[in-house]
Amino acid sequence: MKVIKQSPIKSAFTVLALAFASSTTMAQELSITVTNLTQGLHFTPVITAAHASDNQLFMSGEMASTELQSMAEGGDISSLASMLTNADANINENPAMGLLAPAMSASFSLTNDSANTHLSLAAMILPSNDGFVGLDSWKIPEEAGTYTVFLNAYDAGTEANDEIRGSGAPGEAGMPVPPPLDASIGMNGTGVTDMESNNKVHIHRGSLGDDNMTAGKSDINNSVQRWLNPVAKLTITVQ
Amino acid sequence: MLTFITPKKSTNKLTLQLLIASIFTLGLAACNDSDKVAEEVVVVPVMPEPPAMEYSYSITLTNLTYAQPLSPVAVALHGDTKMWQVGQPASVALEKLAEGGDNADFIALTTNMATISSEGAVPPGASVTLDISTTEPMATYLTVATMLVNTNDAFSGLTGVDISALMLNQERSWRLNVYDSGTELNNEALGTIPGPADGGVGYDAIRNDIDLVGYHSGVVSTDDGLSSSVLTQAHRFDNPAVKLTITRTK
Fold first, then answer.
1. Is B67–A203 a contact, with Cβ atoms under 8 angstroms apart?
2. Which of A32, A165, B69, B240 sees the fewest Cβ atoms within 10 Å?
């Protein structure tokens, strides 16, 4: 909660004003659990933010910011974190201390300032070129209680879904493959496609994959590393 | 493009309310002089027909798919009815929309009280905003429908959603899943898909699928092993396909 320095008389008025105002003007304590609902995808470090209603982490139908692109192509949330911090958001970074494995959960607390009425979340999904799980500006309820929100997988629209090993750097082709995933991802794929015809953030069409770990079009395993929406569950308890 | 239906019950209802209100007001005014109460109450002024209340909405639809253009979007306001239901056969109007992207019959359904269609298709990643107005007080249910044109008979939308509780400037959003009209086999064959992936036939009166509306299972595509498919991996999709937002503007 923000500290307000004022004269005693003014403070009295402030107290009165607060008494009349709705609970939206108060800071809230949130307990949040994010669950990876898939059986074959890993999430890179998750970033969660409570922010003002006019800020957005991403918008479907709009182009991704470069900050979002870094997260979606390489799992790097540092630039998103600085953007959010500059916008006075309350953020939580990397609650799983690394990858959030299939069917696993991570829990954390978040205290949001009175102006930060909306919640957003993002994490890259692996294996993918620029896929991410996202929550776009969910209005935090005023009423205490436990709320459940299901999240979809998006495509940032910034990189062709070639589905082959490559780079996690923004603007570079291919999928990043961190060591824990190395054994489960194929190699020598020739590439599913080299184009991205939709440069807006959109719902991910899913990976094609193939059943050949040493050749074929894709380095993604078509019977394991697949999904249908929703891919994550968010449980939010407003204290 | 707006179709207005002249109000029927609305004016009568409003007139009655205004009459009651005027009687009440007169009664209150008359309290100052109790002797004249009875006399004044029987004098009911002839009320002019009040102007019908108009309701306006702004509807924004975003195409969330990677490569499925959406056919011209049909929006309708109507009474308490659903234009399709899972487990029921599709109407011919819906079949024409879902197989060929042609919403003319769907828009023309006699149950509609106000309608509008987008000018053209909505490309992937694009949005369209449509404004719709009605003076019909019963027109408090919303239907929106559009075809995913690079499919045999997939469509997205919602139907018969009660919007009567929407306050002025209040908005509601939905993320919409994909239905299969069940009227055409999902063979993805050359000549059967009206979208740019094929340029084939849209509506065909023959129903060769299960003839029940259900949720769509997605397209297979030639890249994923349906060798006779004209679709590629790019045409695959997952739910939701559409983001829809309605705002009451009047």
1. no
2. A165
